[in-house]
Amino acid sequence: MSLQAAGAVSPAAPVSADSLAQTPLHALHLRLGAKMVPFAGYAMPVQYAAGLLKEHLHTRAAAGFFDVSHMGQIALTPRSGDVAEAARALEALVPIDILGLGIGRQRYGFLTDEAGGILDDLMVARLADRLHVVVNAANKAADLARIRAHLPEGIDATLLPDALIALQGPRAADVLARLAPDIAAMRFMDVRAVEILGVPCLVSRSGYTGEDGFEIAMPAEQAEAVAEALLAAPEVMPVGLGARDSLRLEAGLPLHGADIDAGTSPVEASLAWAISPVRRHGGARAGGFPGADRILAEMEAGPARRRVGLRPEGRAPVRADAPLFAAEAGGDSIGRVTSGGFGPTLGAPVAMGTLPAALAAPGTRVFAELRGQRLPLVVSPLPFVPAGFKRG
Questions:
Q1: Which segments of 127-274 does DSSP mark as H helices, in order?
Q2: pTM for the full model?
C-alpha cells in the first residue's frame, strides 16, 4: 500500500478521536466493525471484518461501498448566473478545457504551479449554475485558498460540508438503479442531480477503482440513510482505504503525494492525455495556465522521465520508495518506486514508479533494491487491469 505516502499510518496505529475529524458516516463505520486509522486528518476505515483481499475482489466482481467524505468538494458559483465566467477563471489555473465542458459532464484535470508541477489532481463538473470541483483531502484547504486568490470579483468559492460516497463495481449500476432509475442512462463522466430516498444528491458516473461506478454527494445529515440503503443490497460490501489503494494501483491511477506531486509535471506523470487540445500549442486557448511553458514544451519534445507501470518478476511486492537501477549490480539509482503492493485481481505484485524516458518503454527490465538485493521488474503498460467504464 502507498497510504503512508499520502498521510496515513500503519493500520495497527491507534486513532485519537480528539485530534481527528470525522466523516458523517463515522458512527456507521464503527457499527460495521471497521478498523479506523488516521488519514489526511480524518479517522477513516482502512478495512472491515472481511479484510482487504475480500473487499478488493468483491469490488471487482460485484459492488463496493466507499466513504470518501474526507475529499474536498468546492462549488464555484458566479453571482451573475453565467457559469462561463467561472469556467474562464478556473482555466487560468488548470490546463484543461472547462469552457467547452457541457452541462452535466465532468472532466479530470490538475492544478499546476508556476514550475509546471502538479499541486493536486481533481475532477471538475459543469452544472447549470456552478462548477463542482472535487479535490484531494490533504490538499483541500490549500486548493481552496489558491482558487480564491485567483478568482475575479463576482465568483464565490465555497467548501461544501456535504458527504461523498462511492459505489464501485460491475453491479454498481444495478444496485443504484433500484433507488434511482434515472442513473441507468448515465455514461462515464456524466453528472446528474438525482433524488435517492427523497434525498437530493449529485451523482457522477466515475470513481477511483477502474470499475464502472458512481460517486454520490449529498447533505451530510442524510448520508447515513442513503448509505444503509445501498449496503442493504446483497451485491454491496463496505470497502476501506486498504482495498481502495490496491484497486486504484491495479487500475494504474496515480495518488497525489505518492505518484504525482509538485515535483512532477503532468507529462512526466504520463497524464498528458488529460491536457485538452484547445489548451495545447495551436489550440484556440493555448497556454495561459501556470507552468504552461514547461508543460507544453515537454509535450512536444518529451520529458526527461516518466511514470510507468512495473511488474516484479517474482512474488515479492516492491514497496514505495524502493530505488530503481538499470543493472543487477553497480551503477547509480535511476528512479524510484512510487506505489507498490500485491494486486489481488492479478494474483501478483504490481507497482508504479518513475524512470528516465529512455528506459520507460514497455518490456524494459530494471531492478529494485529490496533489503540489499536487487529484484528484477519489467516496465508494463497501464492499467494492469482493464477499465470497466460505461462509455456508451
A1: 140-150, 172-179, 223-231, 241-250
A2: 0.95
